[in-house]
Amino acid sequence: SVSFTPTIKQNSLMGITGGLTARYISEKYFAMICGAQVELNVSQRGWDQLFETISLDANGYEVTSKDPAVAQIGEARNNLSVGINGGVNLNSVSFTSSIKQNSLMGITGGLTARYISEKYFAMICGAQIELNISQRGWDELFEITTTNADGYEVTEKDPSKTYTRKMTYLDIPFLAHLAFGKDRGLQAFINLGPQIGFLISESETMKGIDMNDVRTNSPQKAVYGVKIQNKFDYGIAGGGGVELRTKKAGSFIVEGRYYFALSDFYSTTKKDFFARAAHSTITIKLTYLFDLKK
Asked: How far is CA 190 from the centre of its chain?
C-alpha cells in the first residue's frame, strides 16, 4: 500500500519479489554470529485504489460498498498450467583448492507447475515450481608437458588418465516468473529464485590413475574414493527464454538457466582440505505446459 496525504483509499496490492543475496560472516562472539548481508532484488510495489459506492439497504439506511465497475491498475489473472520439461546440463564444480576440469554434460527433466496471477501493462507476473531429476558433477582435466620440435614446452591433455564424478539430484526450484508480450503468441520471460536439491545417487569413474602416485596433500587425495558428505544442496537459479502460447495446444518454451550453488557438498571447515566445493550448472531446456485453469 502507499501512504498518501491527502488520503487515497486502497485495497492491499499483491506483488512478487526475488533476487540475489550475498552474506559475509566475519566473527563469532560466544553464541552470537556477526556479519553483513546485501541483496539485489526485483520487487513489485504500488497501490490498488478502492472505489466505493453509496446505496440504500432494505431499511433505508445508507450502505458503503466497493464499486466493481471501476477496474484496478493490475489486470487480474488466474491461470494455472502444468507440464513437463527436459534438457541438458553443462556442469563444473568450484573447488578451493582448485581442480582443473572439462565441462561435464548431464541430462535433466521433470515436472513444472506455473501460476500467473497478474498483468501490469505489458508485464505478466507469476510463480513457478519444478520437480526435476538432474545430473551434475565434474570431469577432471589431466595435462602433460612435452617439448615440441622447436624445443619449447607445450602443455596438452593427457588421454591416458580420466576421472569423472557423476551426481544425481532431485532438484526443486522456486521461481518468480516475469514475462513480456501478448497473452497469446510469443513472449520473452525471465525466471529467478532459490533452488534446493537432494543427492539421490553418485558414481565415480577412474582410469589410468595409481593411487600410490597421488600426493597426500592434494585435491585429488581429498576426493578420490571419498563419498559426498553433504547431500542437501541449495543455491540461486536464474535465466530467461522465449515462450509460444497457443489458444488450444498449450505453451512451448525454450529456456537457458544458470544455477549457482551456495552450499558445499564436501565439508569445508578449517580442518578440511577444501574451502569451497560447490556446483555450477548451465542448463538448456525445453518445457511444454497446458492450462488447467484459465
From this structure: 11
Number of residues written out for the chain: 294
How many of the other CB atoms lie within 10 Å of CB of 278?
A: 19
Q: What is the DSSP track for 83-120?
A: EEEEEEEEEEEEEES---EE-EEEEEEEEEEEEEEEEE
Cβ neighbours for 116, distance < 8 A, ≥ 6 positions apart: 77, 78, 79, 80, 81, 124, 125, 126, 177
How does pLDDT run across 174-208, given as a tens digit for each residue? 999 999 887 788 999 999 999 999 999 999 999 98
pTM: 0.72
Q: Which of 161, 110, 113, 119 is nearest to 140 (CA)?
A: 161
For the segment 121-180, what is each residue's pLDDT rounded down to a tens digit? 668 889 999 999 999 999 999 888 888 878 788 888 888 889 999 999 999 999 999 998
Contacts of 199 (CB under 8 A, 6+ apart): 167, 168, 169, 228, 231, 232, 233, 265
If one counts every other C-beta atom within 10 angstroms of the C-beta of residue 95, the result is 21
- What letters, b where the CB count within 10 A reaches 16 and e where it falls short, cover 229-243? eeeebebbbbbebeb
Cell of 265: 557438498
Q: Among candidates 246, 234, 241, which has minimal Cα distance to 287? A: 241
Type of residue found at 75: E
In the beta sheet, which residues pair with residue 115? 80, 127
Kind and range of the H or E run holding 12? none
Q: How far apart are CA 253 and CA 238, in angstroms?
A: 15
